[in-house]
Every structure is written in C-alpha cells, then in structure tokens.
Amino acid sequence: MNKTFEPVLIGFTCNWCSYRAADLAGTSRTKYPPNIRLVRLMCSGRLDPTFVLKALAEGADGVLITGCHPGECHYLEQNYKALRRYHLLRRTLQSLGIEPERVKLVWASASEGLQLAEAIREFTEEIRTLGPLRWNAQAELRSEEVPLEAVP
Amino acid sequence: MNAATSDSPRIGVYVCHCGSNIAHMVDVEEVRAWAEETLKGEGVVVARDYKFMCSSLGQELIQKDIRELGLNRIVVAACSPHLHEKTFRAACEKAGLNGYLCELVSIREHASWVHTDKAAATEKSKMIVAGGVKRVRYDEPLDPLRVPIHKRTLVVGGGIAGIQTALEIANAGYPVYLVEREASIGGHMAQFDKTFPTLDCAACILTPKMVDAGEHPNITLLTWSEVTRVEGSLGNFQVTIRKKARHVVEDLCTGCGICTEKCPKKVLDTVFEAGLGYRKAIYTPFPQSVPKYPVIDVENCTYFVKGKCKACQIFCPTGAIDFEQEDEETTVEVGNIILATGFQTFDPRRIPQYGYGRLANVFTSLEFERMSNAAGPTGGEIVLRDGKTKPQSVAIVHCVGSRDRRYNNYCSVICCMQSLKFAHLVKERTGAEVYNFYIDMRTAYKGYDEFYQRVLSEGVNLVRGKVAEITDAARLPGEEGKLIVQVEDTLAGRQRRIPVDMVILSVGLEPRKDAYETAKLFGISCSANGWYTEKHPKLDPVATMTEGIFIAGACQGPKDIPTSVAQGAAAAARVLGHIQAGEMSMEPIRASVDEARCSGCRICNGLCPFNAISFHDDRRVTEINPALCQGCGTCVAACPAGAISGTGFSDAQVMAQIEGLLWDVRV
Question: In chain B, count of helices (H) and strands (E)?
C-alpha cells in the first residue's frame, strides 16, 4: 500500500464545456490521477462559493473550478461572474488562514479533454505538495487515530 | 437548504459493468456490495449490478424493483448522463416513477476509462455512487417544459449544403429563410469547373438547384445579407438580419445586365474569380447568379468615390438604380436554425518557401479552378500568369497547410481528389507533363480510388514526398527560367529537383475567419481547430449542444460535395422532425424566486444576460420569467437570502452530492 499523502479533490464542472471535456478524456482514454471527484453544474456561474467551502469543510484538500473559456459561455457571460467570485473567494480563504492555492480555476472547452486531464494532473500535484488541509480539529483527531505516514 | 428530502427515500442503486468497459478497472461487485451495506442509512433498499444496465433487460431490472420494492429514487452508476440519462429516465417513467427522480452518475468516463489503478478507481466509484445517492434524496419530480415549435426555419449560408437544406425543408411544405452574405447563392461549388470523381461540370449540376431555391414559393432568399442578432431558444428564435444596400431596387430590376455592361469601372475580383479576373463595380458574381439582381460595390463605384458617373442609372431601362438605398434590418421569427457557413481556403503566403505571391506561376487550387472553368477569366485555357503561354510541365502539391503541425494538423479531406482532378484536366487540355507531390494518397469513397487508378493510367507522375521548396534559382542545366520543386522522393529514397513551368498548390480548408464570432452569435461552440462542434461526433453529427441549432456542410469540418449534401439533407430531416412534432420537450431547469424570502436587495438583478429577472417596485421583490430563464443558475448562487432556487441543481442537491463524494474523508 502506498503511504504517501493522496489528496482528495472536488472538481466543479460546467455541463456544456468541462463536464464534456471530462467525458471526452474518458472516451479517448486519457489518463489522470483518481484523486478528483467531479460535480456537474449547469454553468460555472452556478457555483455558489459556499459549495467550495462546504467541500473543504467536509474533507477535501483542494477544489478545482472549471468553466468555459472567456467568451465561450453557453449562457453568454456567466463564466465572468464565476471569475469574479473566484477572486473574492481566494481572498476570503486567505483571511480564514487557508492557502488560496487550494482553490483553482481553469477553463476547458468541450473539445479539451487532454487539457483538462493535464490540469487535473497538475492540480493534484500542487495539492500533494501543499499537504492535507485538516479543516477542523475533528480532522486533526482523525489524523491522529489513523496516522498519515510520510506526510510532507 | 430549500427542498426537504422526500418522505422516506427508498433508493435502488444499479451498477453497470458496461461489458468490460467499467468492470475491467472497477470492481463492480465490490461497489454494489458497499453501496448496499454502507448506504443503507441513506435509504438504499437494494443495490444490483448488471452487465449492461442500458439494455432492455437492465432497464426491466430497475422497473421490476420500482414496482415490487416500492422504490421512489434510482441511482444508476454507468456512463455519462450525456449518453444515457434519457434512457434511464424513460425507463423509470414506464414503471410509474418520475424520470427526474433518477440520477445517472458516471463511473466510466470519469473513472474506469481514465484511471489505471483498479483499487483507486473502485474507491472513487464508491464515492461517486455515494454522491448520487445523497443527491437523489433531494431530487424533485419534474415535468419537462413543452415548447411549441415555430414552423419557419432559418438557413445561414447559401452554398451547396445550405441550398440542399433549404430545398428539403421547402419541398416538405414549410417556409425557409435562406441568408447568404454574398450577392448570389452558390458558394464555393459555383466557382469550380469539374467535380470529382465523375467530372460532371459543377455549374451544370448546381445551377438548377440554385434556380429551384430562388424560385421556390417556400424559400425567402436574403442575399447580400448577414445575421446580426439572435435571441430566443428552440422553437422560437428572433433573428435580426441586416440586408446590405444593393443600390438596386429588386422590384424594378429585370436582371438585363445593361448596367454592368455600361459601368466603366473594372475591379479585381478577389472573391469569385479568386483574384484571377475582373468584374465591374456594379455586378453579379457570375452569369447564373441567383438572384439575378446586381449589387454596387460602393468602395469602388466611381459615383460613390468621386460623386459623379451614374452610368448605370442613366442606362437602366427600368430605373432600378438607387444610390440613396440604405441597409435595412428585419427581424424574423423561426423555430430552428441551420448553419451552413462553409469554409475558406488556406492562405499559402503563410508558407513562404512555396513562393506563392512572389513567384508568378505558383497558383492556388481555387485560382486553378477558375482558370480551368470555361466561364472563367481565361475561358478555360490553362495558361501561365502571362495569360497566353501553355505550360509544358506542371507540379501539383498536395496537403498545402494541412497535416502540418505548423499550420493545420488535420487532413483537409478533399485535396487528394481535387489534385488528381487537376492532374487529369492539365493532361487532357495541355498534354503537359504532370507531377503530383503527395504525403499519403487518400481516395476513400465511392468511385474515388477508381478515379485515382484512371489518373495513374493517364501517365501522371506521382511523387511521394513533402515538397521542401519551390524556387526560381536555377542551379543545374535545364532549370533556367523554370520553377524548381525541391522534394525528397521517399519511395525512391533520394532528393529530387524537378523543373516545371507551373505549380498548383492544393490548399487546405480552414474555418472561416469569422467562424468563432458566428458561433458566439448563435451560442454554439467550436473545436480547437475552429470547426463547429457537433452534439456527438458519430451519432449526432448535425445537431449542436444548443437545442434548435443545427450544422451542415464544411462549417463542421472539411468535407466534399456529396457529404455536404447528405449533411444538409440530414439537418433538414432533424428540423422537419421538430416542426412536425409541433412541440418539443426541454429540460425543466429554471430558477424561481420564493417571494416570501426575497429581501429585495436586487443583487441578482444585474446578473441575467437573458433579461429574465425583473424587480417589482411595488412589492419590493424580484421575479424570474421562466420563459426567458435559460437555467444557468448564476442568480441562484448569488442570492444572499437563499430565496432563489434552481430546479435540478438546488443548493440542497449539490451540497448533498458533495457530502456523498467525500464520504470517506468526512468527519
């Protein structure tokens, strides 16, 4: 059994672009690490920042937000709203004492299966380097019960 | 948290093997057992696995459980919802369960196909199932929205694909607007001389169709026009079309052509004649243009430039010339839209070593098409740039700008056959020595390889190798005054220098330079190369991800005439299906405001690009118009009071799914 820290990641995807990019990565058998678990939304604009906080609070070590490239939003311009919220959210995280790097926004169109897989691989490594988040004391306790060996 | 979980959830979990597609990388039995045991507390009553859940036997399994075990929620762990969500919803409906109480979660595209560690993929699949189970508890029964379909259709682009589309729909008895930006319909095909592999003349087979389209009582032809605005959605689009000023009154013009004859201004025709010939400042692109009405090119017209001339107006026997005419905008209502906006050819100036634009006798394929056309600038004579000398030897270079990482990495499909056609025409008309330079010979359709065999038997020299350079710098005897093609002959295994009089570059096909803007205008997407993206590359090649918008012809990717025609007809069939059904169902994903919770803060008011949100000053609350709402959910995410809920993607559903996905690490 590999004892290195395996981050748990949540990925929010847009129904029209990045979710389909993830489908395409699958169809074309592009490989990426299994650490990410995807949630489908209709648009990155649907991403309530509390979803991200919820994911981090429930034990995720990082959250990847994905959406259509600027100018390509299925709903015209809602990805720009996601972009604004993303910047605010990163500031909020910082003030909460959480590394803002734990939340990342990438654009991926429906045809960019390869690029999305690459972004997921990159993000997984970034969070692996950052280490576990351990949002609350409960998590701390749990990590004592089940020691995470070789945590960097 | 808006929606409360249902009475008492009785959930069935169904894990699909998908043959070995899922089972080879995910321990399906383990996922099933885990779900049945661990998710009992979440309301899971039964969990089963099956070889193919989407098969009728798999569906019957679900239906039987719904009836016999009284299931009120279903989670299927299989492929992407974009593939089989409809299948499983329909299966549930048949057993009396609302289809929206079924969640399809993907453990194939998002697990088995993308991971290489079976233990990890199995663990991830369990979490995906848990996410589905948690989420499905908050699913609400919904009914699809029924949208009436307007009987009119808009076809954009009057090339062969667009003409075919318009004719198919019009012949079925429904009205069509056919919009074309140039002065005549016909597109690229009208420029060609012969068509491969049968060598029938392009005009002979195209112009009857153009006339049919022009005269059809169900087709409203809008040439010299462009779409400027698109609003609405499937069933009811409002499309604004700008009719550019022709400066010719269509009701008065008889198409006699006297104006063109009398116009003193000659202009290089870079569109139809590909820069090889001239037209007048008042012109129809070609003699068989449909419609027959000419247009005035205001940038070159002597009257518009210098303020005097008016020769056309003086000589027009019906007084049809109107210098004061202005652009007009009209808005039409249509139920469906088909884009057939075509392609442009690769500009070979981007490959300087091929010398196009610098070496006079290097031609593009489009120039050669015009040259070999009997109605073209040389009257069908194949001659050098001087307009009189017949070439003794001709080189034809395949794959110019195609299959090349520096330019376009894709195959342009038509160039091999087009180049072989050129070889045949040159041979037939000039008897010149012909060399074709190819990377791979691609002649894969009905009658195509036979044509290749025929050209081979005509004595054309085929050299397998990518041309490195075309130069006029003579080095060896016999090269003076010639164009020298430098190439590695990969079959002979040596470098060759072949002197010729004329070079034809078979340039590849590219998306139109404004294809991206057009895609944005209509709300569809482009592939990385810029071609319009179809809904499914194999099984839905003419639909797009935007309901009610279809694509046909080369705007979807390089293709030849038979395929463009087939796609045009296919798109028409899809639209006719919509029209005949009278109404279509749409996903009921819409946002709505709970007025009791709305504080009237108006934060959401500026967020909707579809103007679906309005504020009632009297009641101090916001309202969302469900007819305009497209369901993106941006306002739902923005509401600080949680007063806006989004069906299908409510806060409760998403939050629950997150909890499920993090089942193993939650504390």
Answer: 16, 34
